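Budget justification aside, the reviewers requested a transparent look at the raw inputs and outputs of the sequence design task funded under Objective 1. We therefore reproduce one unedited record. The lines immediately below are the structure tokens for a 157-residue chain.
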């Protein structure tokens, strides 16, 4: 029993020590999606969906939940954001070539149709981010339309 108590104490100390370390936050306060919005012109409902369900991991600004203040949860969240942004960052739309933009939209359609995004780990705690069938459809239709416009050379304007 003594040894278990010792281990428990050690773990508690470790947990406390861990709280002094924090991953960098993803919190650009400016209008970080202005380029994306201006170029692709998403209708209001689509923009609302992206904001509520995707931007936390796919843009330069995350609305952090309170439990992000607790390590190691903060590291887990930070990792999701890092990987999400690597794949797709709406705040850096200006840095993608036309082909890359088309490819990102193609992947978006695939992920949304397969209900792989937003990640399940996220919707467990962000109930409202879960996409309804209608929202999925709106997102996919907008992405398909936008791909056609890029293909026709109508975008970028
Ligand atoms: C909790 C964070 C999180 C949220 C919210 C989220 N994603 Fe992701 N997304 C990721 C991560 C992490 C990856 C990279 C790893 C993977 O594919 O699972 C990713 C990858 C992607 C990819 C690239 C997939 C590929 O195969 O290359 C697309 C497209 C995507 N997400 C679209 C979306 C869309 C659209 C939404 C909103 C409807 C969304 N994501 C919401 C974390 C997130």
């Amino acid at each position: 029993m003594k040894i278990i108590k010792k281990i428990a104490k050690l773990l508690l100390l470790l947990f406390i020590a861990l709280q002094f370390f924090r991953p960098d936050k993803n919190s650009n306060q400016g209008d970080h999606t202005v380029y994306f919005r201006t170029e692709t012109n998403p209708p209001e409902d689509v923009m609302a969906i992206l904001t509520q369900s995707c931007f936390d991991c796919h843009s330069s600004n995350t609305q952090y939940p309170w439990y992000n203040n607790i390590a190691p949860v903060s590291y887990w969240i930070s990792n999701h954001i890092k990987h999400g942004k690597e794949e797709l960052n709406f705040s850096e739309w200006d840095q993608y070539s036309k082909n890359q933009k088309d490819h990102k939209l193609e992947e978006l359609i695939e992920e949304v149709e397969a209900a792989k995004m937003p990640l399940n780990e996220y919707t467990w705690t962000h109930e409202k981010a879960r996409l309804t069938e209608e929202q999925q459809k709106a997102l996919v239709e907008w992405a398909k339309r936008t791909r056609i416009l890029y293909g026709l050379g109508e975008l970028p304007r």
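The radius of gyration is 19 Å. The mean pLDDT is 96. Computational costs for records of this kind are itemized in the attached budget.
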